[in-house]
Amino acid sequence: MTENPFNLTTEQQGLMDHADKYARERMYPLAQKMDDEEYWPVDIMREMGGLGFLGTTVPAEYGGAGMTLMDTGIMLQAFSRWNHALALSWVVHDNLCTNNFYNNASEVLRKKYLPKLCSGELIGCLGLTEPGAGSDALGSMRTRAVADRDDFVLNGSKLYITNGPIADVCLLYAKTDMNAGSKGITAFLIETNTPGFSVAQKLVKMGFRGSQTAELVLEDVRVPRENVVGEVNQGHKVVMSGLDFERALIAPISVGIAERALELAIDYAKTRVQFGKPIASFQMVQAHIADMYVWVETMKTFASKVLAEVSSVDETQAGRGSIHALTAASVMYCADMCNKVLNSAVQVHGGSGYIWESEINRLFRSIKLLEIGAGTTEVRKMIIAGELLR
Length: 390
Prior knowledge:
The protein has three domains: 10-122, Butyryl-Coa Dehydrogenase, subunit A, domain 1, CATH 1.10.540.10; 125-229, Butyryl-CoA Dehydrogenase, subunit A, domain 2, CATH 2.40.110.10; 235-388, Up-down Bundle (Butyryl-CoA Dehydrogenase, subunit A, domain 3). It has a four-stranded mixed beta sheet with strand order 1-4-5-8. A four-stranded antiparallel beta sheet has the order 2-3-7-6, covered by helices on one side. It has a two-stranded antiparallel sheet with strand order 9-10. It is built from eleven helices and ten strands. Helix 1 crosses helix 3 (69-82) and helix 4 (84-104) packs antiparallel against helix 5 (107-119). It is α+β, with helices and mostly antiparallel strands and 390 residues long.
């Protein structure tokens, strides 16, 4: 019997089950409190690091697990079923910061920071978006870095930064050549306790409320030249390669949320009685359940296909070509389908799904970020069309 390429391997299924068990037992009990109070469990990253859940794509010599992006996506999908806010903070730390840093940093920087990022001793974030620079993050960037002997001096601000209030280090982008348009940008690894680096405000959100988000301000922040990640004025390459990995890994968040929503809708339909029988016996409720199942299954297949392809791409190949279009398509499609799944799930729940405290309501409020983060739906369509019409 030949192996089905659309199924997880035995090892991958074991990883999925391991991550799911941890998330169900440890992350799920935190979900309500995190949503109600925008609470952050301060010891969770160290705990996850101790269990081998951090540094997933980093080689063992730096303290990582040496796995693939596909493996990261499998864990992320499982985590997102039970606590999507914590799952988002985890992947921002592990992929947007740690993986991107590993792919582009010097050996000196790798040895200095990666072991602590992999253990959870340090929490990372990514500093790209600004108050006036969202979809056009590179072309409209205003944060500046001016060379001063052995340092760079940074001034500016970053907005909507996931993990901003809790991060110990930030992989941050700043303009080093103001006349170079969307280029002339440099990536830096900055320790957040550096004088002049501050959290201007912690942002209160509609969804993913336990995942901490902030505006960051830099006022004459001095960063050693050795903390440049990649090459001076070549940070756009770091951004573009990282975005494809990021988009491929946002899709599994949508998949995990949708899986949980379908499970909740099925359970509710079986137990909710109206007109003397469970609402699962009504054909229109059955239609919702059937649609949701099809949407979830197609999401799983597409997200896995793209993750498998991205796993064989390195940072020099990402950011252009077919993989650029595929990752944009994956994150767009999965977000769109997650929206449809959650809308149907709330419809099945009726009035109880409209109540803030219900789990299905918490899942429903996650929809919009998935259609905005890592490039809006409109930007995703521009990327796809741009590659197809090139």
